[in-house]
């Protein structure tokens, strides 16, 4: 019975990155032997155990066989005779198919060290083609490790998988999960570029694929693929500013109209906070662009339409997303509408709606108009102060 650290923990340690979680593979053991040593079984699909002291996950070495389309269609087999190499060959990328033995030695049967040094994403075996989630995972890794490139045979394999309809078998929740994780990496445009280059973006986010302004398989200086220079700049600026997931998603989608955004969100079952902010940002794109020239009446109407009085934080998120679109590389923070609109919103929110309503006690039907008018007057006053 031998235990090995495997996968991302080995990769990140070799790259000098912090290791957050460690996964272990156990060779030469049975489930009964694991339980006898105090491990607690938790696996549903195949035997996984929690260490009695560290609570780290230990999985028995396994093989797997494809039995149906998608990523649920697998039958797993574990036995003491399954080797470490048998287990590693089923993994996605060579850089994730290395193991560290208990004595610290690296087990690298499939060239992961070489590809790590060369900064290449390469599939371990043809088994890669049996799980369409691996396309999404590779794209997500591209967003994390932006300097890595996809090996030509691996890209060809992913294109063949897309053409075979494997991506169409993915459940929406898993697609969104991987997209969301990729958007939170440091260079999200790389994820979109890889997905577009293999044809998967057109299947999972056709609205975004159609909006791209670059031809497929395009390159920019340094060999980096892009899914459109505008799109890449917007989402990478959002990442550089460490914005939240809803704000990054809104920044990415704002070039579309509200209707296709709603369609995409419904299909992928995007969480409501991401969906609502993206729809609002796209809907108000032109209004925000012209905000500096708008009268107070229009600004208050904008605040009302965006529910800014009840949800000022979401309104501020919309401005952050819009700023990513408006900024240019040489003027990364040049978005005067942001502070301008926030000052106007603060002035409007400072109006005591209760006091205004009390003055209309004899005719409650006048209350909404009176509150609106008071807010317009407050915004006019702050605009006069700003312009002076």
TrEMBL record:
GO terms for biological process: RNA repair; tRNA 3'-terminal CCA addition. ATP binds at residues 8, 11, 91, 137, 140. Mg(2+) binds at residues 21, 23. CTP binds at residues 8, 11, 91, 137, 140. Belongs to the tRNA nucleotidyltransferase/poly(A) polymerase family. Bacterial CCA-adding enzyme type 2 subfamily. This is CCA-adding enzyme. The gene is cca. Keywords: ATP-binding, Magnesium, Metal-binding, Nucleotide-binding, Nucleotidyltransferase, RNA repair, RNA-binding, Transferase, tRNA processing. It catalyses: a tRNA precursor + 2 CTP + ATP = a tRNA with a 3' CCA end + 3 diphosphate; a tRNA with a 3' CCA end + 2 CTP + ATP = a tRNA with a 3' CCACCA end + 3 diphosphate. Its cofactor is Mg(2+). The keyword Ubl conjugation does not apply. The keyword Nucleotide-binding applies. Residues 148-210 form the tRNA nucleotidyltransferase/poly(A) polymerase RNA and SrmB- binding domain. It is an enzyme of class 2 (transferase). Catalyzes the addition and repair of the essential 3'-terminal CCA sequence in tRNAs without using a nucleic acid template. Adds these three nucleotides in the order of C, C, and A to the tRNA nucleotide-73, using CTP and ATP as substrates and producing inorganic pyrophosphate. tRNA 3'-terminal CCA addition is required both for tRNA processing and repair. Also involved in tRNA surveillance by mediating tandem CCA addition to generate a CCACCA at the 3' terminus of unstable tRNAs. While stable tRNAs receive only 3'-terminal CCA, unstable tRNAs are marked with CCACCA and rapidly degraded. Residues 4-122 form the Poly A polymerase head domain. A single active site specifically recognizes both ATP and CTP and is responsible for their addition. It comes from the Bacteria.
């Amino acid at each position: 019975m031998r235990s090995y650290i495997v996968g991302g923990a080995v990769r990140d340690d070799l790259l000098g990155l912090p290791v957050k979680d460690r996964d272990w593979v156990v060779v030469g053991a049975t489930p009964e032997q694991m339980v006898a040593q105090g491990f607690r079984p938790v696996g549903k699909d195949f035997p996984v155990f929690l260490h009695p002291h560290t609570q780290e996950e230990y999985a028995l070495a396994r093989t797997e066989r494809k039995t149906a389309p998608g990523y649920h269609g697998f039958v797993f087999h574990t036995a003491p005779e399954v080797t470490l190499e048998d287990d590693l060959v089923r993994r996605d990328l060579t850089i994730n198919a290395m193991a560290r033995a208990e004595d610290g030695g690296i087990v690298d049967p499939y060239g992961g060290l070489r590809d790590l040094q060369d900064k290449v994403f390469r599939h371990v075996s043809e088994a890669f083609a049996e799980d369409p989630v691996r396309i999404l995972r590779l794209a997500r890794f591209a967003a994390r490790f932006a300097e890595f490139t996809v090996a030509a045979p691996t890209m060809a394999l992913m294109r063949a998988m897309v053409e075979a309809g494997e991506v169409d078998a993915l459940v929406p929740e898993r697609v969104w999960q991987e997209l969301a994780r990729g958007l939170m990496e440091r260079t999200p445009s790389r994820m979109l570029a890889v997905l577009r280059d293999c044809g998967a973006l057109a299947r999972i986010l056709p609205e975004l694929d159609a909006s791209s302004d670059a031809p497929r398989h395009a390159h920019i200086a340094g060999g980096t693929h892009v899914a459109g220079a505008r799109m890449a700049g917007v989402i990478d600026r959002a990442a550089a500013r460490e914005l939240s997931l809803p704000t990054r998603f809104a920044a990415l989608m704002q070039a579309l109209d509200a209707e296709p955004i709603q369609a995409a969100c419904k299909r992928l079952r995007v969480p409501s906070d991401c969906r609502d902010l993206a729809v609002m940002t796209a809907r108000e794109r032109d209004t925000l662009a012209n905000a500096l020239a708008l009268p107070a009446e229009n600004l208050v109407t904008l605040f009302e339409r965006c529910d800014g009085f009840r949800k000022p934080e979401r309104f501020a998120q919309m401005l952050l997303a819009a700023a990513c679109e408006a900024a240019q590389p040489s003027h990364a923070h040049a978005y005067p509408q942001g502070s301008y609109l926030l000052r106007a919103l603060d002035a409007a929110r400072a109006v005591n709606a209760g006091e205004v309503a009390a003055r209309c006690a004899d005719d409650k039907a006048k209350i909404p108009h009176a509150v609106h008018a008071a807010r317009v007057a407050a915004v006019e006053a702050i605009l006069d102060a700003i312009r002076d």
